[in-house]
Every structure is written in structure tokens, then in C-alpha cells.
Amino acid sequence: MSKAYLAITLKIDEADRANAAGVYTKFKAPFLNTIKGATSKELLIRDEDVQVLHGFDSAEDAGAYLSSELFNNDVVVGLKPFLKDNPDVRIYSVA
Fold it and tell me: How much is the average pLDDT of 69-86?
């Protein structure tokens, strides 16, 4: 069970969502298999935005992921062409 969540909310035009979902799909397995403390990764789609919800063993693991090569060199680079605004990034601890 996850003890912390990293929620990244992205403003992406509807026309670009399939491409953004491809980035999510491409890096889901590497995230789960190589990132310390990673327990889950879900893509949530709403009319106004897209959210990627990452589960972790701890808030520290969630914060460390934001500094990882996978996040900065692969995920961010892959999503950048589709972003309409800066992402909203939040880390939550489970009570």
C-alpha cells in the first residue's frame, strides 16, 4: 500500500492527450521497475486537465523521483511539447 502520492496535474489540449498518454505508457514500467519506493502510477483524465498519480513508499521517495534522470531527462522532455502551462506538482502523505 502506498504511503505517499505524487500528483502532477498537466494542462494538455484534448488533441494532444493521446500523445501525452503515449509518454505515460512508455515510462510506466521503467518508473515502477527502477524508481526507489515506487508502488503505482495511474493516468487520470478530466475535461479540464490530465493528472498522473504516482504511489510511493514515502514522501521522501516521491521527492527524490522529481530529481531523477528518468523524470527530468525522459518524462519531462517527452511531455514538454504538449504542456499548455507549468504542471502543478504536489506530494501527499497518507494519514
Answer: 96
Which SS3 state, helix, strand or coil, does residue 83 take? strand
Domains and CATH numbers, the chain: 4-93 (3.30.70.100)
Q: pTM to 2 decimals?
A: 0.93
* Residues 58, 4: Cα–Cα separation, whole Å: 5
Q: Tens digit of pLDDT for each residue in 21-62?
A: 999 999 999 999 999 999 999 999 998 999 999 999 999 999
Kind plus residue range of the DSSP H or E element containing 5: strand 4-10
Cβ-contact 8, 88 below 8 angstroms: yes
CA atoms within 13 A on the CB side of 90: 9
